[in-house]
Structures are given as C-alpha cells and as structure tokens.
Amino acid sequence: MLLDSGFEDIVSVDPSIRLLRFARSRLASRFCPIVGVAESLPFRPGSLGAVITCFSLRDVISVDRSLGEFARATRRGGALAIVDIGKPDSGFWRALVGFYISRVMPVLAHLLIRGRTRGNPFKMIILTWKKLQTNKRISDLIEQLFGPCALKSFFLGGLVIFEADRFSVWKDILQ
Fold first, then answer.
1. What is the CA angle 128-11-82, rounded to 5?
2. pTM (2 d.p.)
C-alpha cells in the first residue's frame, strides 16, 4: 500500500528477525528489513523522508528516546505518523478503556482465535497499555522533539493517530 502511494522504498526496523522474515515474504522487493530497535535507529541524521509506526510505540522501552530518534533520522520536510492504542487523558475514559483492554478484549480475542494459535497473544497488550503514557503526554513529546502534532482519537481515546511534520530548522539548531 505504501509503495503504491508514492513511497520509493520501505525500511522496516524490528527486533524480531522472525517477524521481519514474514513481512519480507509478503512484500515487494523494495522492502528492506533491518533488525533493530526504535531507541537506537541505524540511520544517519535526516536520512528518512517519513517515519510510520503501527501498533508498536507502546512496546518500546523508552517513548522519549524513540521519538527523539524518529526526529533525528527524519529530514526537514519529513513526516511522522503513529497509529496505536491510546490512553485517554480523562480519568473516567481511561478507566473505561482500561476495563475494555484488560477484561473485554482478551475474551473476544480468545473466542476469535480459538484453535489457530496457542494461548492468547492479546493478553500482552494489557501490560503495555498499563505502562503507556497518556495521549496528551505523547502528543506533547512529539511537539517538543519532532514538530507540530495533530492528535486524532477514536473509540473514546483508546485508538489514536499522531501526525507531525518536521519542518523547523530551529529544532536542529537548538539540539
């Protein structure tokens, strides 16, 4: 889909060689898998036109460091897009989303994947959601480290999309 949308090449960074091999088997030859982590990207400063993460920011060890690496590796004029589960800022909505993630989602997942895989891999989302920072906090970090950020939230803030453009020369000078 990204290659059809004008991207020249797609580079994927993931600590799982197994996952990268699977992705490589499904994607075009312009897909380049690299074993690594978001906190220490193996790219020169300003070498990427865009950074896109889907349902992976919640799994990094340091959100601050990862966002800093995204900013470092993205050239001026580049973009950042993050799609992930969210943690609403309001205590009431956070409790409601937390209940759904910890109590409802594992049951639904168990029923939907029964017999196709061992255990329930969706249970890991409970731990990553608990350590996740609030949507506003992540949005503020993106603004500080990357540039102006637009936050779109869905399902009471339980699903979020962060979009930012890296166009400020001052961020490079001040760092």
1. 40
2. 0.84
**From CA 147, how far away is CA 165, in angstroms rounded?**
6
Instruction: State the Cα–Cα distance between residues 24 and 170, nearest whole angstrom.
Output: 38
pLDDT, tens digit (0-9, with 9 covering 90-100), for 10-55 = 888 999 888 888 888 877 677 888 999 999 999 999 999 999 999 9
* pLDDT tens readout for residues 95-132: 999 999 999 988 888 888 877 777 666 778 888 899 99
The CATH fold assigned to 37-86+132-174 is: Rossmann fold (3.40.50)
Q: Is 107 exposed, middle or buried (0-12, 13-18, 19+ CB in 10 A)?
A: exposed
For residue 129, what are its two tokens?
């959601």
- Give the start-to-end residue ranges of the domains of the chain: 37-86+132-174
Residue with tokens 């409790």: 95
**Half-sphere exposure (CA, 13 Å, Cβ side) for 14?**
19
**Sign of dihedral through CA atoms 106, 112, 114, 117?**
negative
Q: What does the alpha-carbon distance between residue 133 and residue 140 come to, in Å, rounded to a whole number?
A: 11
Strands (DSSP E) found in 61-158: 74-85, 149-154
